[in-house]
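Hi all, long-time lurker, first post. I run a small reading group and we've been trying to get comfortable going from sequence to structure in the token notation. Rather than ask abstract questions, I figured I'd post a concrete chain and ask someone more experienced to write out its structure so we can walk through it together at our next meeting. Sequence below, copied exactly:
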Amino acid sequence: MNNKIMLDYLSALAENNNREWYHAHKNENKEATLQFERLIQELICGVGAFDESVLHNVPKELTFKLVRDTRFSHDKSPYNPSFRAHISSRGKLPIPVGYYVMIKPNGGTFLGGGLFADMFSNATAMVRDHIVAHADEWQSIISDAEFKKYFTVKGAALKNVPAGYDKEHPQAEYLKYKSWYAEYFITDEEVCDDAGFLKKSVDIFRAMKPFNDYLNRALQDFQMPAR
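-- Answer (accepted) --
Happy to help. Here is the structure in token form:
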């Protein structure tokens, strides 16, 4: 495993974000992609030590393409110069929530977890209702020392507590949220320390597991919309 190969390739792609360069450097792409898949396999094994639900995954089935969908974007650059993967009991689907990794040069690398997607209104309602019913458990998880060492809860949020929910609820602030996630950023120098980065990633994902588990209990009856 050589994480520097990934960062070097992605840095070059960011500076030459065009189809001509991309196709002229297929060998570098292949090698960097291989390194990322090796990293994901190591993470599956590391996370699997405390969350066996991820062990069946195959790395290449968890990764996202570098090619961007530019149809509805002002940014027409064809590639997203980052390697991304989501490791969960059901692969890279956004629900159930799992362990997200993005490798991106210049300090853009981060480890994440929780519900990033806020386009599923029924998923948002499920989590809100679960927080209402299990407020003390939510507070216990997000105020745990190991969680707070790495994370604060983030997410898209409304200005006010939505209709139908108690404005005086002890977790009213989190009832405003439409998504609930945690992320921890990592420097390029740390990423290039292959063994150190792997160990730190596994430690961070272990600290994230109670947060993910709580959200997945809330979302256990969620059905992905048919395409």
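A couple of things your group might point at:
Residues 194-218 form the longest helix (25 residues).
The mean pLDDT is 96.
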